[in-house]
Every structure is written in C-alpha cells, then in structure tokens.
Amino acid sequence: MKFFKKSDIVLVLTILFVGISSMLLYRYIFAAQPAKAEIYYKSRLVKTVELTKGKDIHFSIPQNKNVVFHLEPDGSIRFESSDCPDKICVKTGRLHTVGQTAACLPNEIFLKIVPQNGRNNQDIDMIG
Fold first, then answer.
1. Which are the contacts of 8, defined by CB distance < 8 A and separation ≥ 6?
2. Bridge partner list, 103
C-alpha cells in the first residue's frame, strides 16, 4: 500500500523550494542594507541607535534604567539584562538584520531593526 502519490511528493518539494528560496532571497536583500535599531517604550519611539561596527556600548533608556541594551562590536544589538521575571528578551540574542524584533513585554519595551535610510510603504506597521 502506497502512502504517497507522485503528485504529493512534487507538491511537497515545490513548497519546500519556494519556502527556502524566499528565505534566502529575504536574507540576501536585507542583510546588505545598513540598519539602525529603534527602541520603543509604550509604543513611543524613545531612542534610535545606528548599528555600526566597532562600537561596544552598554546603555539603557531614561524611562526604564533596569533594562540594559548592548551594542556589540560586530554591529548587532541585544538586551543585556532586564528585571522581568522570564528574561525572554535577554534570551532572544543579537539582532542585526532589517526586520528582526525583540520585546520585553513586562517592561513594555520593543526593539526593532529598520533600514538606515528610512521606511517605505511596504514595511510592517507595529501598531496596525
């Protein structure tokens, strides 16, 4: 007894091919773009950080000194520490590519990587 037909295998391979190609295309397009990090507190932009290589900076925002960010020498940014109970924001790791996001929900802080040259109409709106 056959579990799969030839058409099922072709369909699965086509879906895999389209998925992998779109992921690689996304990474190719956005990885080369210069980026900046936008930090939001209660849905308001409070700080913008240029993601340039060669800087090693620890900082926090004035609205919440208990959440510390780390701008890494490789041009990525991450949550260094937070006073939230589950530390999901810290476990998210480094962000460096346009479109990546991280959030500390108990502290209402949102970190978003955007293109350095601004946004366009196709970007996703945070509020909706």
1. none
2. 110
Structure tokens at 56: 């090693």
- Dist. CA 62–CA 17, nearest whole Å: 46
Model confidence over 72-118: pLDDT tens digits?
999 999 999 999 999 999 999 999 888 899 999 999 999 999 988 86
User: Which segments within the chain are labelled E, that is strand?
Assistant: 35-41, 44-50, 57-61, 64-71, 77-81, 101-104, 109-115
CA pair distance 38, 51, nearest whole angstrom: 10
pLDDT digits (tens, 9 = 90+) for 46-72: 999 999 888 899 999 999 999 999 999
Q: Partners of 61 in the beta sheet?
A: 64
Asked if 84 and 106 count as a contact pair (C-beta separation under 8 A), the reply is yes
pTM: 0.73
